[in-house]
């Protein structure tokens, strides 16, 4: 009897070792598929280290790592310099920095997210142009890339096909995914997700064609010139506030939706998914933290059940709706929300935000 048990344990152990080897081989195959073609020879050693020693699932994108790290380093150096030399940032710099930050934020939340990606409302041409300019101020990817990645994120949340799969940890979901090549499943699903509306949108096509111009002009050059010539900031101050603080903070607010709002909070609408309701994220990301609701009803223009509570984006869309530039706003009916929440949600959570 004892001998049989030992043999069974041994065979289980061999099976689990085989499974681990199999998983490792699959990971290594995925990694190899994603290796950039025609790399410099010196990269071979680095790639071996990435794959075999550290065990990364996909190759690192060293240029992005360098750029993102440099941005943070410059930010830290500027803060230290201002602190050491007792340099005070004038109130007016905070005010217009915040205003530009909100414009950029609205371009992301009300523009590329709720309008272009989810089509949760319709917009007349003047509003589309405003959304385009605001989005360009955020300094992010093309609208096409943003929408494709986000549609894949919704469809394959928390799987290997999710570009910022929160199961791979906080850092990966927040910013790490931008520092690595995409998982083969993300690339595969990204190729088949329906993007016909975006491909046929003339304004988006125009933006994609002149993407670099839009990004440089609206994210950097124009805000810098306005800060200097209109608000009288010194060149040093305006470059610091407009290219470092504002851009970096707005990026982190966007990233926090993929990380914090997939990890910490409650789930009143669907407890089987990872996205959560997180009011702190909502505060900073203009209403995008009501993420359990948003993943349950992604077509809802408020991306939240209740009014405009910590939801600056909905508030602004409502203003545009009043003047007729935003219309056909989609909203889940209270009875539908109640029915879904009663069936799938965590009933211990009170949905009482007004
Ligand atoms: Zn999400
Ligand atoms: Zn979404």
From TrEMBL:
Membrane topology category: Multi-pass membrane protein
Endpoints of the signal sequence: none
Localization of this protein: Membrane
UniProt-listed InterPro entries: Acyl-CoA_DS (IPR015876), FA_desaturase_dom (IPR005804)
Keyword terms, alphabetized: Fatty acid biosynthesis, Fatty acid metabolism, Iron, Lipid biosynthesis, Lipid metabolism, Membrane, Oxidoreductase, Transmembrane, Transmembrane helix
Domain of life: Eukaryota
UniProt xrefs under Pfam families: FA_desaturase (PF00487)
Major localization listed first in the record, in broad terms: membrane
Domain Fatty acid desaturase, chain residue ranges per copy: 93-327
Family: Belongs to the fatty acid desaturase type 1 family.
UniProt protein name: Fatty acid desaturase domain-containing protein
Species per Swiss-Prot/TrEMBL record: Plutella xylostella (Diamondback moth)
């Amino acid at each position: 009897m004892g001998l049989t048990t030992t043999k069974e344990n041994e065979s289980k152990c061999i099976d689990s070792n085989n499974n681990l080897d199999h998983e490792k081989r699959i990971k290594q195959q995925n990694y190899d598929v994603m290796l950039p073609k025609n790399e410099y020879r010196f990269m071979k050693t680095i790639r071996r280290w990435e794959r075999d020693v550290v065990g990364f699932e996909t190759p690192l994108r060293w240029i992005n790592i360098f750029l993102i790290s440099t941005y943070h380093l410059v930010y830290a150096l500027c803060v230290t310099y201002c602190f050491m030399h007792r340099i005070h940032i004038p109130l007016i710099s905070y005010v217009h920095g915040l205003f530009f930050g909100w414009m950029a934020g609205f371009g992301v939340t009300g523009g590329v997210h709720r309008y272009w990606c989810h089509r949760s409302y319709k917009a007349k041409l003047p509003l589309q142009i405003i959304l385009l300019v605001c989005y360009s101020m955020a300094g992010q990817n093309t609208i096409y890339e943003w929408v494709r990645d986000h549609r894949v994120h919704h469809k394959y949340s928390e799987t290997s096909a999710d570009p910022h799969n929160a199961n791979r940890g906080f850092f990966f979901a927040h910013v790490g995914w931008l520092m690595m090549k995409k998982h083969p499943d993300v690339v595969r699903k990204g190729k088949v997700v329906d993007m016909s509306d975006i491909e046929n949108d003339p304004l988006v096509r125009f933006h994609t064609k002149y993407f670099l111009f839009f990004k440089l002009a609206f994210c950097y050059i124009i805000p810098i010139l306005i800060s200097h010539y209109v608000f009288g900031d010194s060149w040093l101050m305006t470059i610091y506030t407009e290219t470092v603080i504002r851009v970096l903070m707005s990026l982190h607010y966007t990233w926090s939706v993929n990380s914090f709002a997939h990890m910490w909070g409650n789930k009143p609408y669907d407890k089987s998914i990872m996205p959560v309701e997180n009011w702190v994220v909502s505060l900073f990301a203009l209403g995008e933290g009501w993420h359990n609701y948003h993943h349950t009803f992604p077509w809802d223009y408020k991306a939240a059940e209740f009014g405009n509570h910590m939801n600056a984006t909905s508030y602004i869309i409502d203003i545009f709706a009043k003047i007729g530039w935003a219309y056909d706003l989609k909203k889940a009916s209270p009875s539908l929300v109640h029915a879904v929440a009663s069936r799938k949600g965590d009933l211990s959570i009170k949905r009482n935000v007004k």
